[in-house]
Structure formats: structure tokens, C-alpha cells
Amino acid sequence: DSGVTQTPKHLITATGQRVTLRCSPRSGDLSVYWYQQSLDQGLQFLIQYYNGEERAKGNILERFSAQQFPDLHSELNLSSLELGDSALYFCASSPRPGLQETQYFGPGTRLLVL
Amino acid sequence: AQSVSQHNHHVILSEAASLELGCNYSYGGTVNLFWYVQYPGQHLQLLLKYFSGDPLVKGIKGFEAEFIKSKFSFNLRKPSVQWSDTAEYFCAVNANSWGKLQFGAGTQVVVTP
């Protein structure tokens, strides 16, 4: 157990819908990262927050957004869902952003869009 | 383009065999390197990491990796695998100040009894 929690574990929804994925970082970690794991794209970095502020963006679609709240938990919002959004979404956390930081991953949320 | 390459997508080997998984990256400058493992149905777990110092790093479960700067490589090794090592292994590089990881495509390792 890494100490990073994610809810829900599984999510099944329909195209066009909107979902929210939730992540709670390890105690004391201020930085949260979101990654998407799919069969065709592999593991891809989506977005990073540090102490409530967005710090880096990766291959995140405009239909997706995220935020980090004052209690440091983060939510990833996926809207206008398409079949291709079906993937495993991981959250990771580290004490702070930086080169020499180790990220610890949560169990992931498996999203299936039908 | 900056990338992380894992040479083998699938590896099948018998228990007690030695394992070596290749990882090459194309970043210049300072990099920090990681190997993560994903057991079936589970999340990514850190096996080992290299930040600086001794280029031979030891991780959990008997794994080790060697950083060869001149070859831009960070290969993972285990002298004798067990059935429980069946998993997907990911090499990852952190080459930026914000800490985002660039992952390789992963290598699926199957260890047969």
C-alpha cells in the first residue's frame, strides 16, 4: 500500500457523459500527478499540481480538467467522454515537485466508456 | 524527440533464470531514473531508483539496475527470477524540474514454474 488512495476503483459510463475521479495523496505530500494508462498510448503524464496550483501539463485533452483542493486531494474531471477515453487513470504523489522526488502511485481508477 | 525505450515488449522465462530488461532514454542533461513494477491487477510499485552516485543501484525483491551514462541506459537485472516476478516492468525518466515522469512502453515478463 503506497498511501495514495483513489476512488472509485471502477467506473462504467456512456459516451458523452462526465465523470470525476478522486485522489488523496500520501500524508505530507504536496504534489499530485495524474497519468493515463491505455493499451495504445501506454502510460502518459496528464497534469501535475503542487500545493493547489497547476505546475505542469502533459498530453491532457481540453475535455479533461483537474484541480487540487486546500486539503490537497485532487480531482480529475473527464467530460464529453469518448470510447477512446477508456483507460486506467493513476494518481501519484510526492512531497514536492522536482528532479529528485519519488512518485508513489495509487491503485488507479479503471474507466470504461460504452 | 525525448523518449524512453524498452527493448522487449514480452519476455518469457523459467524460474531461476536470469532476467535483464533494457531501457534507453534520449534526454540530455541530468536525469533521474526509475523502474516500476505492476503486478497483475495492481498499481505501480517502485522497484528502484537512481539519482546520483554509485551507478549500480539495488532495489527491492533482489532487483538491481545499472546506469551507464555514455550509453543512456538503465538496465534492470535479477539473477534468479521467481514465479512471483510475473508482472509488467516500466522504466521511467524524470528530466525536468517539475518531476513529471516519462515512461517506457513496458515489458511484460512471464515466469513459468
How many DSSP-defined strands of chain A?
11
Structural class based on helices, strands and sheet pairing of chain B: mainly beta
Q: What distance lies between the first and last C-alpha atoms of chain B, to the nearest angstrom?
A: 40 Å
Reported CATH architecture of chain B: Sandwich
Structural class of the secondary structure composition of chain A? Answer: mainly beta
Order of helices and strands of chain B: EEEEEEEEEEEE
| Mean pLDDT across residues of chain A | 94
Specify the number of helices of chain B.
Answer: 0
Poorly predicted segments of chain A: none
The helix-strand sequence of chain A is: EEEEEEEEEEE
Q: What does this protein structure show overall?
A:
The complex is a heterodimer of chains A (114) and B (113). Chain A is an all-beta fold and 114 residues long. Chain A is built from no helices and 11 strands. In chain A, strands 2, 4, 5, 6, 9, 10 and 11 form a 7-stranded mixed beta sheet that branches. With 113 residues, chain B is mainly β. Chain B has one domain (4-112): Sandwich (Immunoglobulin-like). Chain B is built from no helices and 12 strands. The N and C termini of chain B lie far apart (40 Å). The model of chain B has no long low-confidence stretch (mean pLDDT 92).
